[in-house]
Design brief:
Helices cover 45% and strands 15% of the residues. The chain is built from 10 helices and 7 strands. The protein has a 7-stranded parallel sheet with strand order 3-2-1-4-5-6-7, with helices on both faces.
């Protein structure tokens, strides 16, 4: 059911790769709620995914951009505001990558060139995105910027590797930039800490299938799906959450506040 929550609102959605991705689901839901947007991803990611299909489905244009490149981001912001016909109301940052994970390097044996690249893509890019928007004065008052994160920023999940550090940095950027954007422009900045979700990126983490099953047993409401996350993101893009900013919002079925569940106790006492 659509409520026209985003009627007349404009934005940018980073990171839609395929129909399993949260950014893809969010784009579809924004479209259903009356919002318009441009889609963007790194050129290499665009070759791997089906973003053209999503653009056609939602009547959106695609602007390729490397989110680690200040030049690319400045061009993206300028073109997006031109295409959409004005300043932006929402931005979704749904980007994450660890070269160490891809190359099978353990956390205790990182290759630091890999670490730096993953940190730049996964976390520093969020600062670069917001700085580009800020310098161009591209956001409307009471606009909303959201990035996706994971609870490994607060708790240790061994196989999440250096992505845990990246997410911790990402959340800090949201708080710090959120202060200045709020004070000076009335723009909101938040992160959503989502349940483990079977996206293309998520399934690249070692032991993912076992962990998603564990999280399902631990969460009183069960794991939040990609579509659930899209719906929650829409609420943060809407005018219904105008005073919510600088928050890391757990969207995980209660996992983050559960010490142990009866299902887990029963499993280990069989």
């Amino acid at each position: 059911m659509a409520y026209n929550l985003l009627k007349g609102k404009r934005g940018i959605i980073f990171g839609a790769l395929d129909e399993n991705s949260i950014a893809w689901k969010t784009a579809e839901t924004v479209h259903a709620e009356g919002g318009t947007f441009v889609l963007t991803n790194a050129p290499i990611a665009m070759r791997m995914g089906q973003i053209n299909e999503l653009a056609k489905k939602t009547g959106s244009e695609i602007i390729p951009a490397d989110a680690t490149s200040e030049e690319d981001l400045a061009n993206l912001v300028a073109k997006a505001t031109e295409i959409l016909g004005g300043k932006l109301d929402f931005v979704l940052h749904s980007i994450g990558m660890s070269v160490n994970v891809r190359k099978g390097r353990k956390y205790t044996d990182e290759k630091y060139d890999f670490t730096a690249k993953g940190w730049d893509v996964s976390a520093l890019s969020f600062h670069k995105v917001m700085q580009s928007l800020y310098k161009a004065d591209a956001m409307n008052e009471w606009g909303s910027i959201v990035a996706l994160t994971y609870m490994a920023a607060q708790r240790t999940f061994p196989d999440y590797n250096d992505m845990a550090d990246n997410k911790a940095y990402l959340e800090s950027v949201a708080r710090s930039f959120g202060y200045f954007y709020g004070k000076e422009k009335n723009v909101r900045v938040n992160t959503i800490s989502q349940s483990p979700t079977p996206t293309t990126a998520g399934q690249g983490v070692k032991g993912f299938d076992g962990f998603i099953s564990y999280a399902e047993k631990m969460s009183p409401l069960g794991n939040a799906t990609a579509q659930d996350c899209a719906d929650y993101t829409i609420s943060l893009f809407s005018d219904l959450t105008k005073k919510v900013t600088m928050q890391n919002l757990f969207h995980d079925g209660g996992f983050s506040n559960t010490g142990v569940s009866q299902e887990v106790i029963e499993y280990f006492t069989k």
